[in-house]
Amino acid sequence: MATDPIFFQAGQWLAAAGGALVVVTVVAFLARWGVRFRLVGVSSFTLLLAFSCLAFAVSYVPRVSIPGARSVPVVFDNGSDLVIAAAPADLAAEAIQPTLEELARNVHASGRTSEDGFVHVRLRRVEPATAGAGRPVVLGEAQVELATGTVTLNP
User: Fold this and answer.
1) How far are the Cα atoms of 2, 93, 104, 134 from residue 153, in angstroms, in the given order?
2) Which residues, 6 or more positions from 10, have their beta carbon under 8 angstroms from its beta carbon?
């Protein structure tokens, strides 16, 4: 399991600071200092930040970057089995496949469900049909298998 080193180190430092604050809080209660209740809040918040940083460091997944791919916005994602991205009008034909593959590899399967076990990723462009109206044209489609994460391109 890959971890993000910056957040992992920050989590370790915050955990050490939280432990030190807990010790100071215990001393403050034994000595009956006036700031003892504030120290409870500060130490618990510091420990919460430490656990949050460590959890993010463990769960972090960097984005996949494929040469030749263009950055396109996702315009529809139903959260289960369909993701649609909008291609710009000036997208070259040779950039369609790498862009589609990059989109598909950056779709994470956790939390998604599908009847056929796949997430369908479509790249589409809106072309003018009549005055004031457009027609969506699908440039390519990829399927991501939920169980394995395998990407299949269907341009």
Assistant:
1) 27, 15, 9, 26
2) 53, 57
Strand ordering across the sheet containing 118-130: 74-77, 82-86, 118-130, 133-145, 151-154
Structure token pair of residue 36: 């003892």
pTM of the model as a whole: 0.69
**Which letter does DSSP use for residue 69 in this model?**
P
Kindly tell me if the per-residue pLDDT of 62 is higher than 70: yes
- CA proximity to 153, closest of 114, 121, 110: 121
Find out whether 103 and 111 touch, Cβ atoms under 8 Å.
no
Q: How far is CA 32 from CA 23, 39, 112, in A?
A: 14, 12, 53
Per-residue pLDDT tens over the stretch 116-149:
889 999 999 998 888 888 899 999 999 998 888 8
Residue partners of 48: CB distance under 8 A and separation at least 6:
none
